[in-house]
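Can't paste images in this forum, so I'm doing it all in text. The chain is below; anyone willing to post the predicted C-alpha cells underneath?
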Amino acid sequence: MLRTDPLQDSLTDPPALHARAMDNLRFIRDTMERAGSFTAVPGWGGVAMGTTVLAAAPLAAVQPTAARWLAIWIAEAVVAVAIATAAVRRKARHGGTPLLAAPARKFALSLSPPLVAGAMLTIVLYQAGLAGRLPGVWLLLYGTGVVAGGAFSVRIVPFMGMCFMLVGALALFGPAGWGNWWMAGGFGALHVVFGLFIARKYGG
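Text version of the structure:
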C-alpha cells in the first residue's frame, strides 16, 4: 500500500495556497485599477491614426510653401481627431465604459490644455517664420497631454506619452528640415506600435 507522509503534505500545501492567494490579490488589484481608470484608449484607433500620419508625411514633404505644408498637417490633425473620437466611442460602448464617468473626464481635462497650447503656439510660430519647429512643439505638447491624461488610464499610456515627449525634444533640437520625418516617427510609428500593444493587451 502506498503511504503518504502527513508532514510532507502539510509542507507542500501552503506554497500552493500562497500562489493561489497571490493570483487572487493580483486579479483584485488589476480589477480595482481598471475600475478607476479610463480604459477606452483605442488601440486600433491609434493604429489607424498612425497610418494616416505615415501617409501624410511624404505628401507634406513635397509641398512648395510653408502654408501648404501647414495645411496638410492641419487636415491630418482633423482626420486624426475624427478617428480617435469614433474609436473611443466604439471601445467605450463595447466595454460598457461611460464617457462621462470620472476617469474619462479627468483624462480629457488633463489631455486638453497642452493641445490648446499647441494650437496657439502654432499660430505664433508660423507667423514668426518658425514653422520648421512646429513638429517638435506638437510632439512635445501632445506627449505632455498623454502623460497627464495617462495618470487616469492604463499603465502603458503615460509611457507612450513620454516616448512622444522624447521624440518631440529630439525634433526641437534637431535639424528643422527633418520635421516631416519626426512627425512620421512620432505621430505615425509610435501610434502604430502602441496601438497594436493596447489592442492586444487591453482590447480594441
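The chain has seven helices and no strands. Residues 31-36 have pLDDT under 50 and may be disordered.
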